[in-house]
Amino acid sequence: ELQPPAPTEEEKVDCNYVGEWITGISDLDWLNFLAILLKYAMSYSHAYLLFENLTNLYEQSKQYDRVALCYRNMGEILTERGRVEKAIDSHMHAMDYWAKKSTDAHNMAREYVLLGDNYCSGKSLEKGVQHYGEALSLYRSLNLGRGIAEVPSKLAIMCDEDGDYELAKRYYVETVQSV
Questions:
Q1: Is the pLDDT of residue 71 over 90?
Q2: How far apart are CA 66 and CA 69, in angstroms?
Q3: How far apart are CA 76 and CA 65, in angstroms?
Q4: If phi over 0 gives left and psi between -120 and 50 gives alpha, with beta otherwise, what is residue 25?
């Protein structure tokens, strides 16, 4: 089970009002907007709790694409807080919803990229590259140029940092050609 990130000293405030928002506001879109605002305001603990509650509410209303987006946001918060393993778990939950309930290939590809990013930052390069490959395959099947360019550019940077300049060059060329 995913746990909310521990609050920083600045965030150690009474979080009871998050529960009040959930019970006091019936418009899920408004609550989602509020959670996103909290995330971008870097009030991660509060945003995480709100997204966590929204996953249950969206699940009850069978809005599975929204459940997946909540898990994605929770994963991004966990990544931002340096909790890569938990972030991977959250993105895997999102993948389950994209694959089984929503079948939104564009968002599945985006989730693969986020998983690749987390695995690579967690020093599991092989798994990261595997997820990047899945993303690239989906982006190509959808003919989405931006996504097609994003993945080889990430791989090029990895190769460049690793000192494999020849392979990096090939990925950079592939990136430019896909735009």
A1: yes
A2: 5
A3: 17
A4: beta
Q: How far apart are CA 154 and CA 152, in angstroms?
A: 5
Q: Are 106 and 142 in contact (CB under 8 A)?
A: yes
Q: How far apart are CA 49 and CA 136, in angstroms?
A: 32
Tokens of 92: 């895997």
Question: Is there a contact between 140 and 148 (Cβ–Cβ < 8 Å)?
Answer: yes
- CA torsion through residues 144, 147, 151, 154, sign: positive
pTM of the model: 0.79
Sign of the Cα torsion 59, 48, 122, 152 reads positive
The Cα 25–Cα 179 span in angstroms is 44
Pull the structure tokens for residue 12: 């150690």
pLDDT category, 11, cuts 50, 70, 90? Answer: very low
Chain-wide mean pLDDT for the chain? 82
Work out whether the CA dihedral 26, 30, 34, 40 comes out positive or negative. Answer: positive
**Cα dihedral 65, 87, 99, 55 sign:** negative
